[in-house]
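As described in the Methods, two query proteins were run sequentially through the folding procedure within a single session, without resetting any intermediate state between them. The first query and its resulting structure tokens are shown here.
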Amino acid sequence: MTSRGRGVAGFVGNAALNLAAIGGLICILLVAAAFLLNVTLVMFKTGSMAPTIPTGSLALVREIAAPEIRVGDVVTVSRTDALPITHRVTSVTSGPSAAERVITMKGDANLAADAHPYSVSTVRRVLGSLPGLARVVVWFSNPLVLGSLALGASALVTWAFWPRDDRGGPGGPSPLTGVGEGNVPPAERNPRRRASSGIRRRMAHVCAVALVGAALAVAGPVSAATAALTAYDAPPPDLTPDHPTEQVIVGGGLRLDVIGDQKQMHNLDPDGSVLWQVGVTANEADPGAVHVTLAGVGNAGLRLFSIVRSCPERFVGRDCRPGVTLEQPAAAVAIDGVERSIATLSATESRWFLFELWRHDTELSADDDTVSLALHAFGSSDSVSTASGRLSGLPRTGVDALAPMLYAVGAIGLGLLVAFGAGVRARARTPVPAPSRSRP
């Protein structure tokens, strides 16, 4: 390679190392600012605060004392029995002590306020939010992305500590200066100055590599608490369907009208319940009863709960004009595939069943925590069935804080190991000069 090409390669390598070091320094400064100013990030994976803070937003929050809370503030409240909840303050009253307040809150997208007030001494006030940034955080938390960053950092470490000859000898030109043999700057022709310059460069490399490792270690665990996760024994406020779909299934003597929002069912918001409605119309030619059953299959880790109501007419929300009959109180949905009876109709009766579904959980569900409900209506001469589709919770977000640390240590260690091996090999291949003989 010509000295010009080597100079370009050295410039590119230095630029990459400097940029990575700057990124590491920014990460360290952000962590220090978060610690000193009591600011953190909250990632919204639910739509309870839409449209003010839509799903997928990343919000900056700052801890404040309870006496500073004002009605209208959007705050995050920490709880001992569940993950934090982020909603808008609707009222503030005096608490058990001068430093405490009792507040009530409500999500902007929720139809009703939170079930219970909160007694707090500190909260985290939302200072601002940017939509869509939560997806970036999730992307950086992906093991493939972290692995790629680790490989890049390892390559930089290897380059920084690769054995070289600053004089432009057999080891090649210094990637730091891009200077080839016979073109050594005058300032570095003195051996002492050259040695001092090499030490300074090596120390600069050590600092830069340390900052690269810091960037990799800090970038991973940026993911933060999500909004509004709690455990509900009674159903939380039902969410207004965004994209309801209707399906009609007609048999010989039975008809099913199925209404539900598949998007909400696929991402069960832990801050609200979803409604699945099935109308059963019987017109059996043969006299006899029509039986309606429900079976659940899937992963019990979703911890799906339900209330089953019925009405002679179609429901509007949770309401029905002729009157609502409670078929099943709030209870966990059995996930064993066994059909269980809901109701029995006459051969000419029509009835609508409303299934209110929610998660009874204080943790984000795993990606494979899914459930499907199957409703089966059958009489003496006909049988029809329908399924709810895939019911699943919000996937787990973030990464274990230990993982990025291991990536950082592994990247630096691998880079140093490769560079050390290259140095050993270079020294082994360097011929040992023969001792000079003095004349008698």
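Immediately afterward, the second query was submitted; its sequence and tokens are:
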Amino acid sequence: MSSTQSREDIGATRRRTVLERLECPVDENATYENDRWTNRDLIPIPPDRRTYKVWSYFVYWCISGSNISAYTTGSSLLAYGLNAQQAMACVIIGALIVGMLSVACGWMGEIHHIGFTVASRFSWGARGGYFPVVLRAFSGVFYFGIQAYWGGQACSVVSVYHVPRVQPV
């Protein structure tokens, strides 16, 4: 009986340790409780933690547009029959539209200093706010899968299997 109890105690201790590691950090002089409805990630960001400036956002969005999928957009448009000028115009117009939508979606966070999870609670409710977060996570997983596929294709192009042999076998 004592071995069963000790196994349960070990399991409870491990579970508690994992849960403690997953908790959001609490500020030193916090004026909030650290629970599922209020934690450091959900409260409005205090002025001392607002470190992103215009240049930071500009660089972030430029880098996020520098990936293999973005590089293949122009060549895909050429394959559909557009000429180079039309393809470049489409890419630029598309980037401007996405940029305007990104600014519109980030407006609430910029004014009220809140994140996506809190903003989604306005329209979905406290418990329903998990739904758009899960949707966003799934879309991130699929996007990562697409990027991994294209990365694998890029690696296979430069792999040793495509290098011609120079010595006779």
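Helices lie at 2-22, 54-64, 68-79, 84-112, 116-124, 130-157. We note this only descriptively and draw no conclusion about the first query from it.
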